[in-house]
Amino acid sequence: MDSRISKLSQWMKEEDIDFSFITSPDNVFYLSGFLSDPHERLLGLGVFQDEEPFLVCPGMEKNDAKNAGWNYEIIGYSDTDNPWEFISSAIQKRNQKVSRAAVEKEHMNVERYEAISALFSSAAFVPAEEKLRKLRMVKDDKELKIIREACALADFAIQTGCEEIKEGKTEMDVLAAVEYALKKKGINEMSFSTMVLTGANGASPHGTPGMTKIKKGDLVLFDLGVVVDGYCSDITRTVAYGEISEKQREIYDTVLKAQLAAVDASKPGAACSEIDMTARNIIAEAGYGEYFPHRLGHGLGVSVHEYPSLTSANSLQLEKGMVFTIEPGIYVPGVAGVRIEDDLAVTENGVEILTKFPKELQFV
C-alpha cells in the first residue's frame, strides 16, 4: 500500500497539491488496505506530499484498520465527536499549510464539502478522481490473483443456477439457491444485486428478479458477480430451458458472434472505441442495432464499474494489467433478452479470459 500512497504523493508534488482527502470506501481501501462500509459516518484518508498520512474512521473500526495493515496514524472518533476537529488537529500537528487540496468531488456531499472548506477557507479544491482511476486501472499480480478467484466463483454460481432451473420455479427461487451456494463457500457479498430473469423479463437490461415462473421455451439470463478480498467479478450468461424459437436462437447467435469478435479484438494497443464498434457493427448488420443500448463493457476491480469504459467515444488504448468486461446484448421487448459477458485481463500479447463458463448456447 505504501507504493500506492507514494504514487499519489508524487502526483501531488507534480500538481502542487498540499493535501488530499480521500473519502470513498473503495479508494480508501485501495490506498490503505482497510475495507469498510461506514454507512453515514465519515471515513477518510489524509495524504500529504512528504508528511505521514492518516486515516480517520469510526472508533469502533479502529482495531479493524490496524489489523488490515495500516501502519500510520489512525484517528478513531465516537458518534458524539466531531471528526473534523480531529482532522484539523492532525493537519496542524504536521505544520501543513494547505493552499490546494484534492478531494473526490463526485463522492463528497455538500455537507462534507462545507466542513472541509471551513478548515481551509482560502484553499482551492481540485478533483482527485482522474488520478485515482488511472492508478486503479492497471492491476498488479496480487490483484489479478484475487480477481481470478472471484471469477472462478462466478463460474460456479452460473453452473449452480443452471442446475436449479426447473419448470415452475421462480426467478427468486433460482436466485436464492445461487446465493445460498455461494454463502456456503464463504462469500458474504455480491458485486451487485444478482439478476435472474426469465423469458421476456430478460429484455430489460437492468431488470429486477421477481416471482415470474420459468417455463419451457424460455431464455434465462443470469448476471452476477462476487466479491473476494475486496475485488469484484461480473459475468452474464443466457441459457435455454427447453427448445426455443428460431428468433430467440438468431438473437443469441448474433450476440455470441459479437462477443467473440470483441474478445478477439482485445489486445494491448487496441482502442476501447474500436473494440466497442467491433461488436456494435455486427449487431447492427444483423438488424438489431437499436436493441443494443449500452456500452460494450467496463473496467473491473475494487469497484464493479471502473476504468476503462468501453464505448465508441473512448480512444484510450488497452495496456497490460487492465481488467474489463465484454458484454454485448440484444433486448427485444416482449420477445427476449440475451447478454453474454466475460471478464478479461490484458496480457503482454493479448488477453486472458477470466470467466470460463461455456458461451455456446446451453440447454438446461
From TrEMBL:
Stretches assigned to the Peptidase M24 domain: 146-348
GO molecular function, one term: aminopeptidase activity
Entry annotated with the keyword Manganese: yes
Keyword annotations from UniProtKB, A to Z: Aminopeptidase, Hydrolase, Manganese, Metal-binding, Protease
Residues annotated as signal peptide: none
Cofactor: Mn(2+)
Top-rank taxon, per record: Bacteria
Database matches in Gene3D superfamilies: Creatinase/methionine aminopeptidase superfamily, Creatinase/prolidase N-terminal domain
Protein name listed in UniProt: Aminopeptidase P family protein
